[in-house]
Specification:
Structural class of chain B: alpha/beta
Number of domains of chain A: 5
Largest sheet of chain A: 5 strands, parallel
Oligomer: heterodimer
Largest sheet of chain B: 9 strands, mixed
Structural class of chain A: alpha/beta
Number of helices of chain B: 6
Radius of gyration of chain A: 26 Å
Radius of gyration of chain B: 17 Å
Mean pLDDT of chain B: 88
Number of strands of chain A: 18
Helix content of chain B: 10-25%
Helix content of chain A: 40-55%
CATH topology of chain B: Purple Acid Phosphatase, chain A, domain 2
Number of domains of chain B: 1
Strand content of chain A: 15-25%
């Protein structure tokens, strides 16, 4: 299909949602069109900068027939020859779909053309909903970050390089920028204090604190000399996670995130730059590979965040589900239902048939979740999945179709409350269409308890508490620590990279959590969490409030197998264990668990 | 439980690895025969070294490394304390680090301190002189009874092999450097990274004593040291809070 589109157009840009998806698609596309293999390239931000530039140049000169990319070619690239955009898997939001489509026919006389290609049935419904919303111009809501302090810190250092600023004039200037219009004076002063090396008490305690700025009661100026030089080398707000350079002999192929490299072992085959390679050995921040042409790749799973489904598209899907359910309940025959679906989604007969089949199956095996009820399906894990504890975990599928950011926030609160009731940690896997709660035997709960678990009361507090030790907060702290100049980025070429395996921002994070929870950068990280687009606590809270208002319309179903609408959730399995349990209790529990296991 | 040391009041859990080798859950090793307390990877002045290099790491947290060591030493009453390398994170000329070095040597009192050099300890002798700690000579290794104690930063397999060949009967090679840690899962929901001792046939790797060590996963077997790379480890002794748990590898 993509193959035909590529043949029929001058230059095709193929978007995928993940870097690994881009790698995999390039690989399959080359396999499918051997004649075009040399004019199909892959482009994403993990590739070596020179390789990326080379692909962009060849694309601009019209030498390439197709480029497969992740988000890397979404913005700021103007290529006249592209006459078609293909989106593999839906772009998860209306604005993004339009932005991507706009990369084709990028001049005043031509029309931009974009094709959405679904990779599964859920995707198909989503793609249709996206197109319907785009046509009716329902764009996604744009969120502007509110006064991020890490960026403020970097900017203040930058201002201070130029001259001495009084606190008043600097504060006034910063507040004139829209995101900082409501910046409080306390936050501003705390940021200055941090940059000066710590608060007053610390400066009195030590002879030197090595601050970035010289601060007095009236104003500040950035320290001259080395501080300014190093600052210039570390300007930037795009986070750099630990990256490992992948080398084939002496040639640099690109880089992968350190967390990814930790998952694979020598001998494993993965795809980079669209070619399968075998990992031979790893050195410090380097990995050495050999060609593995023809080998079946273990597709890499990069740790980059997946794009969340926007609440707008989620709402549209939800409405559609409700309408289908009504028709199925009223006993509508298959044929007219298919026709109705084709009309409703504005899709072809074949597509409508597949959608119809899936919804009918869901209707038979469980039920179709609706907008005004919350369907919870309960599934006991198959007995052949052994665990240390020896019990069979249970999955609860919550069909809250409110967008991924809301679901993520909601699932964290639910996991935390369950832990408070039963102890232990619960795995919660947020998804675009709801979330899965995976719990072990001692945590199995009653549906009657759900009202308590979902209660809007104390929601915000539980959410904040659930975040404190989450991977999400650590991730944002890592970024804030770099942007806020607490640790330097990797690209400082003169310096040997830190021994990443032994020392990490995670330790700094733990220390701050314990001794200085109010640190400027920790505050920023919390705020980034709540507003960063990956978590929407107010949205989640509004949802449970609505459930309460509607008198808790909860639908509970025991299922023997994973029903069709839950399958995507089940398959996602991000498995970020939400650490909500007290660490000391975790230690205690693990000790007994392992001790029992080892003594058998 | 604690043979040969019944009269000692030890407040943390102890694991007897072999006659004469006792692992203490507080990240230290006790050699009862030699009455020696061994700690590796103190990385003193970690935050200051980073601040000196331009990074604004937090100094609000009390650095209690020396304090913890002094408290443990008070319980064991050792004849000597072996600092097994990476005593300081970087010997930078910062008043706070000098203070810390003075504190370390004064507060251990009359106990003999063996300063074994680690790869981070370049210029440590100079720093000690500036700090007013007189007459310290860094050693490349310490021999205690049959055991050979060295930091372990050696990257050359041949050199490591020659070193091992010198081990006598019942002797162990004891090192630090790797900051070993192990992930323990409950199979369902939780995974915890614990610092650990790592033991194989006559080789023992100590966990880092510094709180700043994140720990490197021992299951990945990606060791920096030639000693560790060439060894076969049979057990990790994971430190879970106050307890030590033997985990087969």
């Amino acid at each position: 299909m993509v193959e035909r589109l590529v043949w029929d157009h001058q230059t095709t840009l193929v978007f995928t949602n993940t870097r690994s998806g881009a790698e995999a698609s390039t690989y399959w596309l080359r396999e499918a069109c051997p004649d075009l293999a040399r004019v199909i390239e892959c482009h994403h931000a993990s590739l070596d900068r020179d390789l990326q530039q080379d692909v962009e140049d060849r694309l601009k000169r019209g030498e390439l027939r197709a480029v497969v990319c992740s988000t890397s070619l979404e913005l700021g690239i103007d290529i006249g020859s592209v006459d078609l955009v293909v989106m593999l898997a839906t772009p998860k939001g209306v604005s993004r779909a339009l932005q991507r489509t706009g990369r084709s026919g990028h001049n005043i006389r031509t029309i931009s053309r974009g094709v959405l290609m679904a990779t599964n049935v859920n995707d198909l419904v989503e793609a249709c909903a996206t197109v319907l919303l785009a046509r009716s111009r329902h764009l996604d809501f744009v969120r502007i970050p509110e006064a991020p302090l890490d960026i403020l810190a970097q900017h203040l250092v930058s201002m201070g390089c130029e001259r001495y600023w009084t606190r008043e004039e600097a504060f006034a200037l910063v507040r004139s920028a829209y995101p900082y219009r409501d910046l409080s004076r306390a936050d501003f002063d705390d940021t200055l204090d941090y940059l000066a090396g710590g608060g007053d008490s610390l400066r009195q305690q030590y002879e030197e604190v090595f601050g970035k700025i010289d601060l007095d009661d009236d104003g500040f100026q950035t320290r001259a000399g080395r501080v300014q030089r190093e600052f210039l080398q570390n300007i930037g707000v795009i986070p750099e996670t630990g990256v490992i350079q992948v080398r084939l002999k002496n040639r640099l192929l690109g880089s992968v995130e350190e967390s990814f490299m930790r998952l694979i072992n020598p001998g494993d085959v993965f795809v980079i730059s669209g070619r399968p390679v075998r990992l031979e050995r790893t050195g410090q921040m380097e990995a050495f590979v050999t060609r593995a042409d023809g080998a079946i790749p273990t597709i890499p799973r990069w740790n980059a965040h997946k794009m969340p489904l926007s609440a707008g598209v989620a709402g549209e899907i939800s409405r559609f589900r409700g309408e289908v359910r009504q028709r199925l309940e009223s006993g509508e025959a298959e044929e007219p239902l298919r026709k109705w679906i084709a009309r409703r989604l504005d899709c072809g007969a074949a597509n409508a048939g597949v959608v119809c089949a899936m919804f009918s199956a869901q209707h038979r095996l469980s039920e179709i979740p609706m907008e005004d009820t919350l369907l919870i399906e309960e599934l006991l894990e198959a007995p052949d999945a052994p665990t240390v504890a020896g019990d069979r975990p249970k999955h609860y599928f919550f069909h809250s179709l409110i967008g991924r950011a809301c679901n993520d926030a909601l699932s964290r609160v639910v996991a935390r409350r369950l832990s408070a009731l039963r102890g232990g940690n619960a795995i919660s896997t947020p998804h675009d269409y709801g979330f899965v709660l995976t719990v072990s035997e001692h945590q199995f709960f009653d549906v009657a308890e759900l009202r308590e678990i979902l209660s809007p009361e104390g929601f915000q507090d539980d959410f904040t508490a659930a975040l404190e030790r989450s991977e999400m907060l650590k991730y944002h702290f890592r970024n804030a620590a770099q942007t806020g100049l607490m640790v330097y980025r990797n690209h400082n070429s003169e310096r040997k990279p830190l021994r990443k395996l032994q020392w990490s921002t995670e330790v700094i994070f733990n220390v701050l959590q314990k001794y200085e929870p109010d640190h400027v950068l920790l505050r920023t990280a919390r705020q980034d969490c709540a507003q960063g687009g990956f978590l929407d606590a107010p949205g989640a809270r509004a949802y449970v409030e609505r459930l309460a208002r509607l008198g808790w319309p909860l639908r509970h179903r025991q299922v023997a197998h994973v029903p069709p609408l839950s399958f995507a959730m089940y398959a996602t399995r991000i498995k970020e264990a939400l650490d909500v349990e007290d660490p000391a209790e975790t230690m205690e529990r693990l000790f007994h668990l392992w001790w029992r296991e080892l003594s058998i | 439980m604690v043979e040969g040391a019944e009269y000692l009041k030890i407040s943390a859990n102890i694991h007897r690895l072999a006659p004469g080798l006792q692992l203490d859950a507080r990240h230290v090793l006790w050699l009862p025969e030699e009455r020696a307390l061994v700690v590796a990877d103190l990385h003193l002045g970690y935050v200051w070294a980073h601040r000196h290099a331009g990074q604004l790491l937090p100094i609000s947290a009390p650095d209690d490394t020396v304090e913890r060591l002094v408290a443990i030493a008070a319980e064991y009453c050792p004849e000597q304390v072996v600092l097994l390398g990476d005593i300081v994170h970087r010997a930078v000329p910062v008043p706070a680090i000098r203070e810390e070095m003075r504190g370390l040597s004064e507060r251990l009192g009359a106990v003999a301190i063996r300063w074994v050099a680690g790869n981070h300890d370049r210029d440590l002798e100079g720093l000690l002189r500036e700090s007013g700690v007189a007459g310290v000579r860094l050693e490349q290794e310490a021999v205690l009874g049959p055991h050979l104690l060295t930091h372990g930063a050696e990257e050359d397999s041949a050199a490591a092999g020659r070193c091992l060949a010198r081990l006598g009967d019942g002797g162990w090679l004891i090192m630090g450097h790797e900051h070993p840690a192990i992930h323990l899962h409950d199979g369902v929901t939780t995974s915890v990274k614990c610092p650990c001792f790592l033991a194989g046939s006559r080789i023992l790797v100590l966990p880092a004593f510094s709180r700043w060590a994140a720990g490197a996963n021992v299951r990945s077997l990606r060791f920096l040291s030639a000693f560790a790379r060439d060894a076969v480890f049979s057990h990790a002794y994971a430190i879970l809070g106050e307890r030590i748990l033997a985990v087969g590898l």
